[in-house]
Specification:
- The protein has 496 residues and is mostly helical.
- The protein has a single domain, classed as Sodium/glucose cotransporter, CATH 1.20.1730.10.
- It has a two-stranded antiparallel ribbon.
- Helix 3 packs antiparallel against helix 11, helix 7 crosses helix 8 and helix 17 packs parallel to helix 19.
Amino acid sequence: MPLQTLQVAIFVFVTGLIGFLTYRKCRQAILNERASAHERTHEEKNKEVFLAGGGLTWIFVAGSITLTNLSTDQLVGMNGNQMALLAWWEFAAVFGLVILAKVFLPIYYRYQCTTTTELLEKRYNNHHIRALISVMFLLGNVFIFLPSILYGGSLFMKEMFGLENVPMMVLAIAFAIAGAAYAVIGGLRAVAISDTYSGVLLLSLALVVVWLCLSAIDFDFSGIPTERLTLIGDTESPIPWHTLITGMIFIQVYYWSTNQTITQRAMASPSVKEAQKGVLTAAAIRLLIIPPIIVLPGIVSFKLYGDIGDAAYGRIVGDVLPLWMSGMFAAALAAAVLTSFNSILNSSAALYICDIHEKYFSNKVKADVPKLNLFVTAVFIVIALLLVPVWAKSESLINLVQKLYGLISMPILSCFAVGLLFKNVDYRAAMCAVLIGCGYYGFTQFRPEVDGQWHYIHHMFITLWLSIGSALTLNKFVFGNSAEFSWAASTDLQEA
């Protein structure tokens, strides 16, 4: 009992320490922002809340990008597959981050974007397409990512601390309230700084967990089926080898280069070079550190416990870590849940306020950003909490997240691709193509009798090219425009 008390005390202390250090780091900036609030333009206020006033150094960009992505849907979900194949998501992510740094970031900085969708408005010369893509991003954030993060974090805490008698919703509500506090009170600055502090702690302890897991089986992988250890997946595996050369590449480009939750951190630096340094550092972390911590504990848990799915990570962490250290690790993972959750909340609020509310509901009087931020954040939280019981019924957290996200990811990416690589494309053609892509993917994935043989990643690849082709075809034959493919246009943007 004393050890359990110590475990909880360490958890509370570390959690509070991260919050205190974040407050200390942000305090002066927040006071300065409040003191000059009456002198700032509306655009400057938006930049302060959603882009940290353009003041994130490369260290905080790297830390925030790393921990925004690394949460329970990764640690719990990927380890829950209990096989090495899931490491491909992380290896492929390096490619997506390099594309963000070298291709997309110079474009965002040239156009001085607050949201990634603002780029679409400027390329298509129409704000309706910006609003449509924002709505799609919001649907993914609110109905997929937010509830899955709350569920994964709550499941981990239940497994690690043996909280069988504590309802899942109680833990989910606690995470939601704490995460919202960062997003509303401190904005992106507080989110990014807490991400970095938490990230150093989490990555360090996660590597300790890997070492202790391997020690628990004496570094002996005998008895584990070959399909659990291989990096070459067959057709029946979660990641067949052939998907790596089709949809996997474009999934990574979409997620790391156009997704507001990720790119928002990189757009918050004082210069494009500072942002690129942070993104490339995040890519190095992704390549060297993340893969072992998201697959090895799961593989070891298969040998120790058998096929237990998403419960694997929480159980093995609880078993291999000393109680005092498990309290510290729980605090680090709780911080990861909070930072991923508040990162998505902050980016979702930015999308709604900048792309929808200010375009359609406050043309004459500019919105009070802090108050509106609080209101929309509360709405998003309520929706996410209502969906936690639905996610609790999933067989595999990470596989369901990836499959569902295909509904919007490739259609959105097609919109960026057409807008950046072609001139003279009518925005209506691009919008119709996005809807066609969504319809195709939904029809093939949620009507299994239509096509049960092709992997969903292949269908994402087809969805992308179908959407691009539809946009160009509609532009030509319905709207009477001839699209002009121009490498010069994209090169000019990259060099800006």
